[in-house]
Design goal:
single chain; 246 residues; alpha/beta; 9 helices; 13 strands; disordered N terminus
Length: 246
């Protein structure tokens, strides 16, 4: 005859056996924008692809995490992490003091990236102080606040390019890894202008404040990829040979 205690023990045993069967992998939901190549984007097959998608899969394998991706708009990506819509953020997010007050970060998996200005070909350097387009809530937007005539913020990075091409703004300011392929494919319409700046403390994985268990697993996985050189290999593959590595 089964008692409540017996059934409870059977239930616990089944949970243990199920965990053993799948390797005890912790389920983790990763939020990403999916609109910021080459970090993460939707390919022609309608699937997520990019540097962070391949990196995330390897980090999850090394950390014994069962990861799924959640696409979320950039502007609400931190609030929705705080609201438990997912457990981590991988979305080309620079580590900054302002963001670190809201969430915690893993170790950087990309060194501080160069940020550059792009304008219509032939533009004078003065355009970087005029109407400048940025993606909202980015490290570039924070850097330029109060420093230009008109800071024009867009929800999507691609909208900043459309604004520059149409003449709605004088220039756009974003990471070099994002802009370089766009400039190369612009048939001479766009070109780099002005200085190159290094902003933030590198790109990291955001987790909810106090989630030290997940943060520790991710840090260990990132550290192992730095040690064996595989992280630098992925950076070169997706971001380019000219981008900073560890």
């Amino acid at each position: 005859m089964f008692t409540v205690r017996t059934l409870s023990l059977v239930g616990i045993l089944l949970v243990i056996l199920a965990a053993s069967a799948c390797g005890g992998a912790q389920p983790v939901r990763i939020g990403t924008e999916g609109a910021y190549p080459p970090f993460g984007y939707i390919n022609d097959a309608g699937e997520l692809e990019g540097f962070e998608i391949e990196l995330g899969a390897e980090l999850c394998r090394r950390a014994n995490l069962e990861c799924t991706w959640v696409i979320n708009d950039w502007e609400s990506i931190i609030p929705n992490l705080q609201a438990d819509k997912y457990d981590a953020i991988m979305a080309g997010m620079s580590i900054t003091e302002e963001r670190d007050r809201l969430i915690d970060f893993s170790a950087a998996y990309v060194p501080p990236e160069p940020s550059v200005y792009v304008a219509l070909a032939g533009a004078e350097e003065e355009v970087i102080a005029g109407r400048v387009a940025v993606q909202t809530a980015t490290v570039q937007a924070g850097h330029l606040e109060g420093k230009v005539v008109d800071l024009v913020e867009y929800d999507l990075a691609e909208e900043t390019i459309e604004a520059a091409l149409s003449g709605a703004v004088d220039s756009t300011f974003a990471s070099h890894s994002y802009l370089k392929d766009i400039v190369a494919a612009s048939d001479g319409q766009l070109d780099f202008v002005g200085p190159t700046l290094f902003l933030g403390q590198g790109t990291g994985i955001g987790v909810r404040e106090g989630d030290e268990v997940l943060r520790g697993k991710l840090n260990q996985a990132i550290g192992s990829m730095k040690e064996d050189g595989s992280l630098n290999n992925l950076i070169r593959k997706w971001l380019g040979e000219d981008e900073p590595t560890f």
